[in-house]
Amino acid sequence: MLTAKCVGKLLTTPSRLLKLIIPLTTLDKNSDRKDVEPLALLVHPQQPLSYLERLIQSELPTVTTARGEEKIPAVHFRAEDSPQDEIMPAEKEQPSESEGQENAELEESKFDGKTERTGILNRKKKTSEVAREEESSKSLGDGSVESYSGLGREGPDSNDSDKNFVRWSPSTEIGDFIRDAARGKEFAVEIEGAPEQIRVGVPSFNDRTHYLRHRLRKTSRKISDMAAIKTECDVAAHRGAQRVAIGGAATLLGYWGVVYWLTFRTDMGWDTMEPVTYLVGLSTLICGYLWFLYHNREVSYRAALNLTISRRQTKLYQSKGFDLQRWEALVEEGNALRKEIKQVASEYDVEWDERSDEKDEKVTEALKEVRDKKKDGKKEKKGKEGDEDEDDD
């Protein structure tokens, strides 16, 4: 049923599935067991171990029980357990020297010609609180905090005699099982009727995220190439919008100066300028309402400034040959890859330095900017929904 060297492999794939290669055969006719082809199985980390168990059982021959009945062999999965998880009985306390001396100082009294020990001289009684503390300290085992490691097969070597393998429930997800098994270098697949277990190397965090980090580095290089052009266009657009804003401020100041001069320095006076200023203010209100109807945006200086910047950016992008849609797709892909790697890092309980794979500070800032915009958008949406709920109440 198994090869002579019962060693399997668990590999990552570009499709984010796990490829399990184990030496199995439905019928072993090789005396030296050197020509048995290994079996490859593709599984998803979120599938339970029972699914993998059924896949392996479908490739195994039946075994004969002691009653002569044929049955499908059972398959169990065992992972190396850490020494801190073992439950050890509390050691029995030996009487101390002080207790021996106290026993020796027992007072002796005679009753009906018999000598008996009736008490202890000069001994202070223990309080009930001290007694309860001593009783609570006598527990079956000491509690501890579970620890994980992302080293997997890259971890230090240890003797087989020091390893303690525990059987895992078939309902456990494969990803959770691998995360726990990563504390050791391998896990074991135990098949009923097999002469020995199949040892499978556990992929480390670097193995699990190899293709993800490779794709992130590739995407980061593309973003970095486009980031320089985008930064140049954005800076130019903001400067242009700032000049427009300064021009608008100068226009308002000029308008104020003209009204002041015509009102107080000429014969026109306020009687003439009052209807002029009224008509100018009414015209401004009408133009603002028409602007709102056309652009469907709130009338404000900030909205006008953002519109100016956006139009200026679009013109500069076209003149520089910058593809904005491709940029947004790359940034979205980069954030998605980063999220997946972060998720695997949390499963392995390791710290991942994203800057080492993103390679460029501009890439990190671009990805972070998009994430912040999404967070702000979600907050605004929740705020509006809350206001609508209050209005309904």
* Annotation field: number of helices: 11
Residues in helices, as a percent range = 40-55%
Rg, Cα atoms, Å: 39 Å
Question: Could you tell me the number of beta strands?
Answer: 11
Architecture blueprint of SSEs:
Layout: E1 7-12, E2 18-22, E3 39-43, H1 49-57, E4 63-64, E5 70-71, E6 75-81, H2 97-104, E7 106-111, E8 114-120, H3 128-137, E9 164-167, H4 174-181, E10 186-191, E11 198-201, H5 205-208, H6 210-264, H7 269-295, H8 301-320, H9 324-348, H10 354-358, H11 361-392
Parallel strand pairs: 1-11
Antiparallel strand pairs: 1-2, 2-3, 4-5, 6-9, 6-10, 7-8, 10-11
Helix pairs in contact: 6-7, 6-8, 6-9, 9-11
Please give a structural write-up:
It is a single chain. The chain is of the alpha+beta class. Helices cover 52% and strands 14% of the residues. It has helices at 49-57, 97-104, 128-137, 174-181, 205-208, 210-264, 269-295, 301-320, 324-348, 354-358, 361-392, and strands spanning 7-12, 18-22, 39-43, 63-64, 70-71, 75-81, 106-111, 114-120, 164-167, 186-191, 198-201. The strands form 3 sheets. A 7-stranded mixed sheet has the order 3-2-1-11-10-6-9, with helices on one face. The chain has a two-stranded antiparallel sheet with strand order 4-5. Strands 7-8 form a two-stranded antiparallel ribbon. The longest helix has 55 residues, at 210-264. Residues 84-88, 120-128 and 136-145 have low confidence and may be disordered.
